[in-house]
Amino acid sequence: MTALFINGQWLTGEGSEFKSVNPANGETVWSGEAASPEQVNTAVAAARQASTDWALLGFEARTEIVRRYGKLLEEHKEELAVTIAAETGKPLWETRTEAGAMMGKIEISVKAYNERTGSRSSDMAGAKAVLRHKPHGVVAVFGPYNFPGHLPNGHIVPALLAGNTVVLKPSELTPHVAHKMVELWEKAGLPAGVLNLVQGEKETGIALANHSDLDGLFFTGSSRTGHLLHEQFAGHPGKILALEMGGNNPLIVDEVSDIKAAVHETIQSAYITSGQRCTCARRMFVPAGEWGDNFLTQLQQAISKIKVGGQFDDEAPFMGSMISEAAADGMVAAQANLIELGATSLMSLEKLQPGTGLVSPGLIDVTAIADALPDDEYFGPMLQVIRYTDFDDAIRQANNTQYGLSAGLFSDSEERFNYFYDRIRAGIVNWNKQLTGAASSAPFGGVGASGNHRASAYYAADYCAYPVAGIEADSLALPATLSPGLTLD
Ligand SMILES: NC(=O)c1ccc[n+]([C@@H]2O[C@H](COP(=O)([O-])OP(=O)(O)OC[C@H]3O[C@@H](n4cnc5c(N)ncnc54)[C@H](O)[C@@H]3O)[C@@H](O)[C@H]2O)c1
Ligand SMILES: O=CCC[C@H](NC(=O)CCC(=O)O)C(=O)O
What we know:
Elements: E1 4-6, E2 9-11, E3 17-21, E4 28-33, H1 37-57, H2 59-75, H3 77-88, H4 92-116, E5 120-124, E6 127-135, E7 138-142, H5 150-162, E8 165-169, H6 175-187, E9 195-197, H7 202-209, E10 216-220, H8 223-233, E11 240-244, E12 249-253, H9 259-270, E13 281-287, H10 290-304, H11 325-341, E14 344-347, E15 362-365, E16 382-388, H12 391-398, E17 406-410, H13 414-423, E18 428-431, E19 443-444, E20 456-457, H14 460-464, E21 465-472
Parallel strand pairs: 7-8, 7-10, 8-9, 10-11, 12-13, 12-17, 13-16, 15-16, 17-18
Antiparallel strand pairs: 1-2, 3-4, 5-6, 6-21, 14-15, 19-20
Bound molecules: nicotinamide-adenine-dinucleotide and ligand L2THXQ4J.
Residues 146-147, 154, 277-279, 436-438, 440, 444, 456-457 line the site of the ligand O=CCC[C@H](NC(=O)CCC(=O)O)C(=O)O.
């Protein structure tokens, strides 16, 4: 299998063999060889070689190629959705929306380039104040498995538009999606070396991230890996590092009038993508007392009816498989650990079929251990419930996390929302809406251990180019008056 794309050529990797599997049935989807460290070097060298011409090509010509890629995405939308579903276990209806988001990214990124970066000029005495932007040069893009198309695409499209060249290292769990995506870029007529693909596991990632000739690295993945990269980039202030990482996201529920809607938004917050979205609600604060009891009863009824199943089942499931059996085992172990610490299971997260990542959605009451709760991101369909009596204390607990990605409030009171908004610490703050499903037309990123203040989505343009400010005049001219103490005669 020619797994790598370097300098416009598909090549066989010289590293060790690895494969991806359909997590809903264990069948192999893709197998190939990883890039060797020498091939990673070749990929970075190819990107460097292509860098000047790509930058000099100009924004309009680059946009033309990027739009051609967008058209190809449209033509291959279904094929891409099927590939994503096969490799991730996500239901086909959901991967169709991922392919749609990839298409939408093109025009949003063109607009963002012009609005956030681009060029401007204004008059000043005897000259013009000019602002332009330049690309960084060669950047590495690292992607996660949960949105193997949309999220790397969300770095690649703005990076290329701005004039950077790219080396992509996708998740080792989703190499096939990356392969398909790069094939479309090739078909769109991207010049050789402008986008390079190195496949492989952690070692390939380490070789790429350590490369001395990178000008930047755009990462979406776990907080653990992001922190390692941050340490690695310490002492290199000249290199740009954008980190989009995980969260331990809180959702506070007030005594709202429409319980059914609150139940629906909770399910969309916690269980969509089998809980494998960075924005998923992980901790839910529910009022103690009768209203809260009633809400939880209705929530449990609705959760018990969530259909879990294969991504291609005729009767579409809401939740597909988790990414792997190992990830499912990890969630079962996390739940057992919370129970051992003193939590009470309301609905048990259980493996549904050995050898797969299929699990049932879990709900667990952690009120008894609220102040000793591990501040971990449990990246799966398990929502922790904390009963509260005091709204301020719920906000305090919601903020009691190293992370700060998304947070939300369900409340009929705008005043309450404003109070919550002023006190909550997160990059995404929603009111009466699910925590997931962020728009690409807005910035996307978190604070604390969730990011490094380089928001993605609409603001990705910001980390893809640096500003150059200039004062310009067509010709040299003496000023009307010279500074005191100067004589030119
Ligand atoms: N904030 C966001 O925008 C966002 C979006 C999606 C996912 N996520 C987060 O991503 C995580 C799930 O994705 P994942 O498990 O694929 O993440 P991950 O950190 O395990 O892997 C991400 C990428 O980094 C590579 N990698 C792993 N270890 C490395 C190392 N030591 N050096 C260099 N590269 C290395 C992987 O091979 C992969 O390509 C969750 O924590 C989720 O919250 C965040
Ligand atoms: O898993 C993390 C991403 C979740 C997703 N966010 C986006 O799609 C952000 C928009 C963008 O990057 O264009 C969500 O909020 O569901």
